[in-house]
Amino acid sequence: MGYQRLPDDGDLPPQRIFDWPCRAWHWINALLVVVLIVSGYLIGTPLPSSSGDTSSLYVMGWLRFAHLASGQLFALGFLFRVYWAFNGNQYSWQLFLPTFWKKSWTDGFWAQIKWNLLLLKLAPRYVGLNPVANVIMLVLFVLPSLLTILTGFAMLAEVTGHDSWQYFCFGWMVSIFGNTLDLHLLHRLCLWALVCFTMSHIYIAIREDAVGRQTMVSTMLSGIRQYRR
């Protein structure tokens, strides 16, 4: 059973939630997202021109290299995470598929909303992701990440040429949008979606760790979730 809300009363034993490949992916992916956001923003909004020889400074060259290298590693990590959803433990697929068709999930979703709005005295306790986190992960991380990868490789395909493997695999994105400007626009909108996700993810994780009744940050380090009364 991938989703499970635990009783509100009583002591609960620690439970292992995240296996080590999932935790490693999380922290490596977090670093890549930061590099992508910073380098992508500076590529779209360059810094003021620096005095000196351009070839020796190579500022935009290094920014572009960091962005392209991080983007390709990010894409490989995304493919690995999809693979691990099918080969990891029973909680690995929660990132991609909220069980919204189950009454227990919908009940937990509204309970978590009430907790976030400070309408509940006791925070719900879960095994795995809570239902609100399910939705946020899907809408603000998984879908924008997929679109970022597709549009990013499509824009790269226009640089590498029509005889490149990038154009063979992603050139169809150019045909859908018809022009590069719209590709850039969607790519940057996804960047801001990832910025919103990163800020909300950090805030909610720290808040749950501080005032909730289960560990969050340390769980992603050790894989084991501790529960409090």
TrEMBL record:
InterPro entries: Cyt_b561_bac/Ni-Hgenase, Di-haem_cyt_TM, Hydrogenase_cytochrome, Ni-dep_Hydgase_cyt-B. It is a multi-pass membrane protein. It comes from the Bacteria. The keyword Transmembrane applies. The keyword Iron applies. Keywords: Cell membrane, Electron transport, Heme, Iron, Membrane, Metal-binding, Transmembrane, Transmembrane helix, Transport. One of its GO terms (biological process) is respiratory electron transport chain. GO terms for molecular function: electron transfer activity; heme binding; iron ion binding. SUPFAM superfamilies: Transmembrane di-heme cytochromes (SSF81342). GO terms for cellular component: plasma membrane. Signal peptide: none annotated. The chain crosses the membrane at residues 24-44, 65-86, 135-157, 186-206. Pfam families: Ni_hydr_CYTB (PF01292). It is found in: Cell membrane. Belongs to the HupC/HyaC/HydC family. This is Cytochrome b561 bacterial/Ni-hydrogenase domain-containing protein. It comes from Paramagnetospirillum marisnigri.
